[in-house]
Amino acid sequence: MKHTLAFLLLAAAPLTAQVPQAQPVDPALQADPGNDMFQRGKNLYDQAQATGSQEAKIEMLQRAAAIFSDYLTQFPNHANTEPAWLYMGQSLYLSGKVDEGKRAFQTLINRFNKGPWVGAAAYTLAIDAFNKRDYQTSAPLFQKYGDNANRPEDSARGYYYAAESFRGQNQDRQAGDLYRKVINATAGGVHVPLAKLGLGNLLLKGNKHEEALPLFEAVVTSEATPQARGEAALKAALAAAKLKKPELADKYLKLIAITPGMEKFRPDALSLLMETAMADKDYPGVLDAYRKSGLEAADAIEAPPDQKASYDEKKAMRLLLAGRANFQLKKTSEALRLFRQVESSISPQSELAYQAAYYRILCFYAIDGEHLPDQVDAFVQIYRKSRGNDKNLHTALLMKAETLFNRSDYTKAASTYAEIDASLINDSNRPGLLFNRGWCLAEAGDPQGAVKSLTKFISDYPKDSRINKAMAKRASSYVQAGEGAKAIDDFDKLANSGDEEYARLAWAESARMRRDENNLPDMIVRYKGLLAKGGTLTSKLDAEANFYIGWGLVKTNAAKDSIPYLEKARSLQPETFGKHAGLLLALGYFASQNLDKLTEEIDLAIEKQYAKELPDQALEWAGMQAYYANKFAASARFLDRISNPDEPRETSKGIWRYLGKARYETGKYEDALKATLNVLAVEEDPALKADALLDKGRELFALKRDAEAQATHDEATKMHVEGRTGAGLRMLSGDLKMRAGKAEEATHDYQYVVLWVEDRDLKPLALWKLARALEKKGDTAEAEKYSSQLKKEFPNWEAPKEG
């Protein structure tokens, strides 16, 4: 069921239902600390609703939520408990903490069960579920809203959307009961015609046309939207047509044709008009309705030859009806044009395309068309599999056979009839008959007939020079007929025939067959047999075998072993297998933990613009390993591809953490800060949070935002972390003091790291910075001492380009 109308209306509705106002106690009459706390939260909530700044709104809503939470903890049985749960839920929900808000709404519903506050909570939860098409959840919630709404019109809204939700689950009885409840409501308002439309659709679905018709008619004459009235008019016409009331059906169809806002329903209305006229054999009436609709001219415009076909079933139905009317009126040329256009307007395997193709052959037969046999061949080739037992297909074959017979083309006629008694054929011609008939039947899409004829040839003439060719064709026919075991038997015989050409064909075709069957182990065996025993292969076939061996190994959890095959396939046919081999190679290198090769593969995928198809786990692993290998640009490049800055919570905090660190190391401080802030938004572990704060402080320092960097440093320091993070904070403190001209104080921070932290990365940097700080404050001797220590302990260490 489509809910387009319902969604439009629901989108226009308020996010939360109208709720009663909580009445605070007059402080002049009675001291009430609970009421005071509640009112503070409510005032803050109201201010948030009134503010124009989204940031300020979110901040105020979150503060309000905290106040309501404290209120509910301290005063769980206070008079305003119910509204407090609702306002807390709304504050959380509207500030982006959707799940927490929904839990608050659910708690309110579970604890109090009924009342306007419960109804308001149910409404918000119902909208959330309905817009996700979770009708099983939204149905009882909308119904609860309807039962507890503060106003009659809100009750009608709740019952209507509950009915839509039940209808979305095909629970028609429950939906019908609620539609009727809305219809009978005294304050149903705009939802009454919508409920009538919904109930009418249910009745129409149950073939209760007599009951459905007055409901649709009522909607047509209501003040509902043109879209709702248009749908009702179309359904009224359909119900009237089913009830044998053509004048009434015609009335509503014509109403659609002239009413603004009902344009969406005009194609369906026109098709129904044309079908009605066709059923009455009023062929001029069919064409008259088509001309007057205004759609005939649009339908006549064909897409340019280089434009991809856009299938339109409604257009195809109109064209088919117009074509059939022209055919009955003996306007064969016009009918042919329309039937051809149907075939280009719809999927070739659809019923409408099939009918159009059949009527086109009827046109050729009526005018004794020269190319009718070719037309029938094309027709049979398309539809033999899907409609092999259809009378129209066999009628078309009969038309072809008779045409060939009348032209004295008996050989083709005999093949078309496909009813040959081989015993009446001369012995010398029998092998050719069996072989050629089998071959032709196979080519025409009749695999069973081909197998029968070719089997007779193979068994009766095993020494014939065409035996391998016949066996190959029979194997192919077995595949088409779905008899895989028999096909494999033929392919295996050809593989061992000693004929290199047919052995190569057998290995290749049997491997492809196993590939289509998803029998990957045997596919791999057969492609390997092709490489080992197929003789000289073309570059294309060699590449195919290597690629699918690699592909099969990846699919069977042997990605490490796939690498040489995939590399060769790509080198042989880069245009064909470059991208696909690259994606599989990425998995192979990932499985073998080969960072260098995986890095090359990812960069190639980025260059060739298919990196979005790489698996996230490979990119994440490569990004992390590149970071640990000090390949920071590569790490940032890879992790950036699997991060989502628009929805940062969809990306793991681990990815954000290392993306921020990698960006920092590559000098992209602003971008690094954005990533680190995403970590801090969700990180709760104290040690990891302190590490993220350190990253934030370093990034702010690099951006010359020293005051913010100092505040971040102080926040992290209060967490009393030690180890590498603690040492990093000391280093940041020293850097901030150095920039502020406090070299004396900076030396203490650097000296702490030098004396107490054994870290191969931090210690040489601390020695270098300590020497610079000492030199800055004029203590040259001490500076030289630490510079010497640096050279002695870390002789290959290189100082950073910027201090």
Automatic annotation (TrEMBL):
Coiled coil: none annotated. Pfam families: TPR_16, TPR_6. The keyword Signal applies. It comes from the Bacteria. InterPro entries: TPR-like_helical_dom_sf, TPR_rpt. Residues 1-17 form the signal peptide. Residues 777-803 are annotated as: Disordered. Keywords: Signal. PANTHER family: CELL DIVISION CYCLE 16,23,27, CELL DIVISION CYCLE PROTEIN 27 HOMOLOG. This is Tetratricopeptide repeat protein. The lineage of its organism: Bacteria, Pseudomonadati, Verrucomicrobiota, Verrucomicrobiia, Verrucomicrobiales.
